Amino acid sequence: MVRNISIRKLFFIILILLTAGCSGESQLTSAKKRIVFFGDSITEMGNMPGGYVSIVRDSLKNFEIIGTGISGNKVSDLEKRLRKDVLDKKPDCVVMYIGINDVWHYQFADRGLSGTPKDSFSLKLKNIINKIQQAGSTVILCTPSVIGEKTGGSNPSDAMLDEYSGISRIVAQEAKVHLLDLRKEFLSYLLEHNSTNSEHGILTTDGVHLSAEGNRFVALQMIKGLKASRIF
């Protein structure tokens, strides 16, 4: 079956991760650490009931979880609202999930939209990360996930999305921040579970935005990423 990540299994895995990462109750009784999820419509919808941000919030009760996603955002939009939506909140950790619209919007020139040139994408990611680090916060940078769920590189935006994911990987390495490679994780999952090579309906509703299963999948990846970056 495609939908094999049950809520019960998800929380069981989360419990193991939390237990492994905390040696005692005393580590969790101090002031709550604050985590900000910073992104586009995927994060905006993720902050709704059943969304990945909400699942993380419900799972990590000892953390303050804030979702600051806005539909249609690209890296330039994150740069503009960095102060208000992130730095002013004084987070301990910022999870940046961005890049889909920077690629996807190239398809919608007839609507007055445009993508982000690769050099600008890289520069703005570096600038945002630098400002977050200067404020004393940890950064987790996610690669963009999918624009279409077909396997074997057969979605129209796959080649460009791979390029932009590569940029995110390089930026994370150079900035010495934790990389959460959602692109890699999505492709691996779809290769195993999308036997009909469907364009959507596995982890997304439309090839981009997360389904219920997709939100559970991303929540699990986020919690694993938080643990790997030693947030808990």
Low-confidence sequence ranges: 22-29
Q: Compute the gyration radius: what is it?
A: 17 Å
- H/E element string? HEHHEHHEHHEHEHH
Please provide the count of β strands. 5
The secondary structure category is alpha/beta
Q: Roughly what fraction of the amino acids lie in strands?
A: 5-15%
Number of helices: 10
> What spatial order of strands do you see in the largest sheet?
2-1-3-4-5
State the separation between the terminal residues, measured CA to CA: 33 Å
Shape: globular
Outline the biggest β-sheet. 5 strands, parallel
Average pLDDT taken over every residue: 91
Question: Percent range for helical residues?
Answer: 40-55%
Note down, in words, how this protein is organized.
By secondary structure, this protein is of the alpha/beta class. The chain is built from ten helices and five strands. It has helices at 7-21, 41-46, 52-59, 75-80, 82-85, 100-104, 118-134, 158-175, 182-193, 212-228, and strands spanning 33-39, 63-69, 93-97, 138-142, 178-180.
